[in-house]
Specification:
single chain; 215 residues; alpha/beta; 11 helices; binds SN-glycerol-3-phosphate
């Protein structure tokens, strides 16, 4: 499974990239708003430090606007993927963009029918928001399972990005289900390293060594 980081903060991306296990980045307008920086300049910088795909979202909600913004995004960097919302004009835009060879990530997906529409239109990626589904009492990871089954049943090549990840359990379940990608906030990415026995183990190894052999 590929690990993307879900942030627009370049320091977090640099740190995750330095670990050598980062496959891509996803941003959205809310994440850019936190950084209070120009969207295009920020995405350009992110693309330079990221080995793989970097998702940047259109702000338009009409077909012409989305297509034109998507074409502009492709001029920013080769590894930009255009994030488009799952609305009728968005799907129409994804169809056009896929015919032009422009990679897309269909976002704000909350059920399997939305995911299938994205795949039929030729989306490169589809992003179910598992945390937001859980927030309203649903089961986000069950929706991911339904999407993976439907894509396998019909041989769609669209990759599933588990998005709106809130905790390590979402990552573990993504791995168990065979999701293609999880896009993970920096806080959760750091938690993937953690186990108390690892910390205790390091302390004990060093203490034993020091007790027997000194510094
Ligand atoms: O990738 C989508 C993600 O940014 C949404 O996450 O935590 O705002 O639901 P959240």
């Amino acid at each position: 499974m590929k690990f993307f980081i879900d942030t627009a903060n370049v320091d977090e991306i640099r740190t995750a990239a330095s670990w050598g296990v980062l496959d891509g980045v996803t941003t959205n307008p809310s994440l850019i708003a936190i950084e209070k920086r120009n969207y295009k300049e920020t995405v350009k910088e992110i693309c330079d430090i990221t080995p793989g795909a970097v998702s940047a979202e259109v702000l338009a909600t009409d077909y012409d606007g989305m297509v034109s913004e998507a074409r502009e995004w492709t001029q920013v960097a080769e590894n930009v993927v255009v994030k488009v919302p799952i609305i009728p004009d968005g799907i129409k835009a994804v169809k056009t963009l896929s015919q032009e060879g422009i990679k897309t990530n269909v976002t704000l997906v909350f059920n399997v029918t939305q995911a299938i529409l994205a795949a039929k239109a030729g989306a490169t990626y589809v992003s179910p928001f598992v945390g937001r589904i859980d927030d309203i009492g649903g089961d986000g990871m069950y929706v991911v399972e339904e999407i993976l089954t439907a894509f396998a049943n019909y041989g769609f090549e669209t990759e599933v990005i588990v998005a709106s990840v809130r905790h390590v359990r979402h990552v573990v379940e993504s791995l168990e289900m065979g999701a293609d990608i999880a896009t993970i906030p920096f806080k959760v990415l750091k938690q993937l390293f953690k186990h108390p026995l690892t910390d205790i183990g390091i302390e004990r190894f060093l203490a034993d060594y020091k007790a027997a052999l000194g510094d």
